[in-house]
Amino acid sequence: MTTAQQQALFYDVEQQAITFQGRKLFQQQPNCPIAVLGQGQADVSMYRGNFDIQDHLLTKWPLTIQDHQANTDRLVLTLGTHDTAYLCLTFQIDAQAQLIVTPEVLTGSWNRLWLRIVAEPSDNVYGGGEQLSYFNLRGHHFPLWSSEPGIGRNKHTLTTFQADQDHAGGDYYTTNFPEATFISSQKYYCHATTYAYADFDFSQPGYYDLQFWAIPERLQFGTADDYPSLISKLADQLGRTQGLPEWTNNGVIIGLQGGTERVEAIKQKLQQHHVQLAGLWCQDWEGTQTTSFGKRNYWEWRADSKLYPQLKAHIQNWQQEKLQFLAYINPYVVEDSDLFNEGAAHGYFAKTQAGDVYLVDFGEFLCGVVDFTNPAAYDWFKQVIQHNLIDIGIKGWMADFGEYLPTDVVLYDNSDPMVRHNQWPMLWAKCNYDAVQESAHPEELVYFMRAGATGSQKYGQLLWAGDQSVNWSKDDGIVSTIPAALSSGMVGISLSHSDIGGYTSMYGNIRSKELFMRWAEMAAFTPVMRTHEGNRPQQNFQVYDDDDAMAHLASCTQIFTKLTPYRQAVVNEAVTSGLPAQRPLMMYYDEPAADNCQTEYLFGRDLLVAPVVQPHQASWTVYLPDDQWVNLWTGESYTGGTYDVPAPIGQTPVFYRQSSAFTELFKEIGALK
Amino acid sequence: MTTAQQQALFYDVEQQAITFQGRKLFQQQPNCPIAVLGQGQADVSMYRGNFDIQDHLLTKWPLTIQDHQANTDRLVLTLGTHDTAYLCLTFQIDAQAQLIVTPEVLTGSWNRLWLRIVAEPSDNVYGGGEQLSYFNLRGHHFPLWSSEPGIGRNKHTLTTFQADQDHAGGDYYTTNFPEATFISSQKYYCHATTYAYADFDFSQPGYYDLQFWAIPERLQFGTADDYPSLISKLADQLGRTQGLPEWTNNGVIIGLQGGTERVEAIKQKLQQHHVQLAGLWCQDWEGTQTTSFGKRNYWEWRADSKLYPQLKAHIQNWQQEKLQFLAYINPYVVEDSDLFNEGAAHGYFAKTQAGDVYLVDFGEFLCGVVDFTNPAAYDWFKQVIQHNLIDIGIKGWMADFGEYLPTDVVLYDNSDPMVRHNQWPMLWAKCNYDAVQESAHPEELVYFMRAGATGSQKYGQLLWAGDQSVNWSKDDGIVSTIPAALSSGMVGISLSHSDIGGYTSMYGNIRSKELFMRWAEMAAFTPVMRTHEGNRPQQNFQVYDDDDAMAHLASCTQIFTKLTPYRQAVVNEAVTSGLPAQRPLMMYYDEPAADNCQTEYLFGRDLLVAPVVQPHQASWTVYLPDDQWVNLWTGESYTGGTYDVPAPIGQTPVFYRQSSAFTELFKEIGALK
């Protein structure tokens, strides 16, 4: 055993290398310095949540080590150039056996920092928040900036090209939920305490280049011998979800719109077709306004008395049928509404340089941005949630948006919006969290968010994978929900789900019946089942228009409800250990094929789900890692390998571990087919 | 008069500002230094002449002025940081009253240099070599790297999107002919003596940021009171064309393929339709090979005895009809041919790191790259031109390519291919130049090139605007030939022309008859008329298939030949003064509308050409700067303003100056309609 391995923190003076728990993390090398300081000027423009960000970089100074002070659990490096010390990096082991790296600028006004972490060419990297195109981040760089995902996230698709004409196209890294956290296959995590714009570059064979647009408060590294322990350890630091209300196990949460009568009629129709319902989710509960894009919700956040008259009474009636009502809210308030005027009078909105309310364009209507840095505004909006939603019996809601904080607003606390921007989704999550926790029965409530940030582990109860396209495309369609769940799961976001059938229908993309069915089959093996009518309900397939699809959905809800004991165990594990409900295969199986697998997942420890994510498939090729597997539908046994298995509609491939404590339950479910 | 204006070179010590001929060029300011040094590592990949270039920038150090030594015609600045001097900039007035700025690195191994030149927000900037999307460069940055222009040079077009799938799309700055030279509307030129990759950024209101990927030998600045004098002064430095052979005035050079019989038959048909011919240009004179893309020429550079048997005798026959034969050549030699084997045996090709011949993929066939840094290889290929072309009576040729020098070749002189790359077109031009100048009758010969570099002013006899798309698109079609001629004209490239009808037919773009006709009308008012059958001759409109189009072309050639005395005067001005044949309106007219005008041009001093560059136009809106103008076709008089004028097919709008010495000639041409 070498000295480096004996010590938790070891500094090799000659090699100028820093080793933590046997992992070499930093090494000063010619042309590959540990730290680089810089000065840049950001150039940011936003169009409806889509950002164009450029850096005018003036200075980039690689630093050399000028001095070091080392003992067994603490190392202080002084870095600089030309005999001037510019940066101090303190490396220290904390009480949780983490390595804490604290950068401190000694002189100069620097707003760019690059830290280079030593890598092996064979390393894999995971995390980065919720990433939808690449589960394994190695080989790419990831700008970390909260934004609309973009319509089309692959620059080689025609959809993206078309969306780019409208400044609405995305790229492989665009996400509602970026986070400066990653997991290395050397079995350590690295988390940076900062919300500033960052760009983590994993494209180089010998190092990871972490770029920050502000000096981060600190970086923390933790290690473990296996991934589950590592993720639990990270979750200990970042927080864990509160779990899900019991009633979500009752079936699907069905997304409907159009007012009480229509909702009630469709509800009955679904029930007649034996669809098991947990909730009615009506995103238009607050009424609608008409724009040239069609109907848009009216963002004043109170029940609309025309569309949903006497909503409170209706909610009570539905609850007697064991059906919950879910609503929709976001942290913006439409101009000229009563709520807007109230908030404006109190100065609760973010302001322009001139001191007026900063109005953000959401597509032919303008909104004020609730200024969460103002404690009074925060409380005010929390009370809106409490009074207008919780108090009338609403048990769940989509807590939408959070990614739109413009970078040129003036905030109450005068903090820099460039740094607040990425934090905003967490503040919005916390506002929901506090509203819930202060209520009489927090355990009955659920809110789901697409935006996230460090802290969403605790404050974001349930993630949803954002606005997937209503198609089979790799970067935007059904399959992109898998890396979304897996990557966010690696950073401690343990509960995710998605819009069954997808959301975004643009440029001729129309949801098919088959897509809806395959999506529902997959959703039965996620924490929550919830449908969405999509952004253009009338042009897209809707389950309630089709008897066959209702029968199929009924079957999926039957599977889902039947699976409740297992799912509850999985969710309980999330609550207590931070382990994600949907887990990558590499978490347990050290096989090359598992490293990059992002079309399959483990649901809990014992179910392997390999959803059919292509149209017109009667069978499906599945990769099974080395274990004893049983096909949920056929009962056939398998060991590790690649197999072509039957996959008729209704039976997306699922396998359970022969050693599971739930084999009897799984057999019962398999018999439902 | 201030001191700064009194002196040619003035250094204001307090302001740290350098003024040359009354123009403030440099000023050290906080966050806006005169010079920045850096270190970067280029990451270059090439796919068939399309380059992807990234910089891994390690260091960027803004420098401050540490010392200065000044007298009336010489200033030496020492720049550095932390009391270390890194760069010396010497500013000196030369015998031609130019300001010569010479950077010298004092210590360190730097390969990036930024120089910032003071700008006024209202400045316009021109030049940059041959630029096809923006004549006025202000507001954009221009990477200067010789490459294929790309199929589609506008990222918002579907064509570009489609081409990008094949790594063949371009961007607004991609050009066969970049040059580190620009003209400011403060009436000075700036030319950098370097062929290294550069990026000139004119997007900032207060400065121009000139980035170089090697320390340039020097920058030179010259001033004048008007643009014609300024361009002449620049041409005195960079060189001037030899002009054009007399026979090019005889009519159109017609692009044909398919062997002697087909060429002769079409020639006769055209003559029967009264098309006046100057030459027959057969790019397949060296024979063809078949690839999956279709027929490609066989790059061995000798007459193919099957397609063109007894070519020398045929050439003599055609010459008796006053018809010249033109061929095609480029500086690559197809693998396994006799010429290749000969060159390889002598080591005349660029090599791989392993010492083998470096083979470049040109689309299912591989070629060696003639190594022009090897004097013996240069002479060898010059003799190929002399023996295989000139000696058999060929009087002109397309000297194609030059942009493909890979950046990982090993050259004979071991020079850096990153620096040679941009120079290669000039070396290729010079090889042609020398072949011509050493021949018995250089004045009878013409070669035309699309690639260029500093030195092409002298060695590139005639530019052609590259591979336009066969359409009306702004960045790729007919109209892009105008900024191409105007921008290259601003840096002393005085003779340009284009493929009548365009070249590139891809992704469903097909040449129409109307496009061909409008292009021919325009070409009658350029130095040379030449057609091209395009890359897919059979799918595109060909003039010889259409009686009506042949009559139209006959009319255009009649105008062209009739215009000869005027055109000769214009070409003579190019030879003696370096003034371009096609001139931007801003060269003579100080009007805001002239600053950005890139759809019209002056042909010589007296003709204003406003080509119809949209389909289905019976009339056309023209902008006329303040002068006395006469419509060439109607005889109507105009003063400055914007007018809608008749523009039937055959009469693209052209105006002459009432004060011209050629008014009688112009009247005769107008009567030809």
From TrEMBL, chains A, B:
Belongs to the glycosyl hydrolase 31 family. Residues 260-566 form the Glycoside hydrolase family 31 TIM barrel domain. Residues 578-660 form the Glycosyl hydrolase family 31 C-terminal domain. Keywords: Glycosidase, Hydrolase. GO terms for biological process: carbohydrate metabolic process. It comes from the Bacteria. GO terms for molecular function: carbohydrate binding; hydrolase activity, hydrolyzing O-glycosyl compounds. This is Alpha-glucosidase. InterPro entries: Gal_mutarotase_sf_dom, GH, Glyco_hydro_31_C, Glyco_hydro_31_TIM, Glyco_hydro_b, Sulfoquinovosidase_GH31, YihQ_TIM-like.
